[in-house]
Amino acid sequence: MAKFNSYLLGKVTKSVGNVTMCYMNKQNIARAKIFSRKDKPTPEVLAQRAKMKALIELSRRLLPVIRKGFIGIGSGTTSNAFVSLNLGATSADESYMVTIDFARLRMASGLMYTPKVTVTYSEENKMYSFEQEMQMAEEGYSSADDQVYAVLYETVLKRGKLILLRARGENGNTSESLPEEWDSTNVKGYAFATTKNGKAASDSVCLTIA
Question: What is the largest CA-CA distance in the chain?
């Protein structure tokens, strides 16, 4: 609360923004409005908030991937697009603990054709082998010089790795070692494609690691 004198305004009794002015005891007084929410969030709202919080945290750990996989999606940020698209891949229990279904998780989104990639893992060599099948160009949906990427994500350590594979118009194999401290049993794999200039992407596909 503040007291003030105004010869120009005289006795003031009005509101401006979040300030209410009144005249009391022969003085002008300004008071800030107090805003408070009386509504109590429903369980559905709390569950939605918990799921969004989990996805926001995940998006930060996958930022290099998301910046490539969600380019050109809407007018918001790539992280916002990732969170919005993946809400359906999450669930929350009665304690609002969130579970992410990594088989449904999307690392990229777009109209381009998804790449044809398979992956195997050798426990002996601790090496991932990505086998890529050549795809034909189709106007507006795929080009021989599209770039194909793979993603590995360790779900316990919450660490990701973006791997550059080959151009869409090539057959071939790309090998990648298991990162230090990673447990191969916790690793999920994905693949997606972008245009050569990186301005458009395909949906991602979840890879079965054989």
Answer: 88
Output 164 or 73, whichever has higher pLDDT: 164
Q: pLDDT tens digit string along 73-107?
A: 765 789 999 999 999 999 999 999 999 999 999 99
Which range of residues forms the domain containing residue 134? Answer: 43-207
CA 55 to CA 190: how far, in whole Å?
17
Give the type of residue at 83: V
Q: Which residues pair with 19 in a beta bridge?
A: 16, 32
Query: Rounded mean pLDDT of the chain?
Result: 88
Any domain includes 37: no
DSSP-assigned states of every residue in 27-47:
EEEEEE------PPPPHHHHH
Give the Cα separation of 58 and 112 in Å (integer).
25
Q: Are residues 17 and 101 in the same domain?
A: no
User: Residue 145: is its pLDDT beyond 80?
Assistant: yes
Q: Among 151, 148, 149, which residue's Cα sits nearest to residue 168?
A: 148
Overall number of domains in the chain: 2
Residues 23 and 51 in one domain: no
Rounded Cα–Cα distance for residues 31 and 165 (Å): 63
82 and 181: one domain? Answer: yes
Q: Is residue 113 part of a domain?
A: yes
Between CA 73 and CA 114 the distance in angstroms is 16
Q: What is the dihedral of CA 163, 167, 168, 169, to 10 degrees?
A: -150
CATH code at 170?
2.60.40.10
Q: Helix, strand or coil for residue 95?
A: coil
Indicate if the pLDDT at residue 23 is higher than 60: no
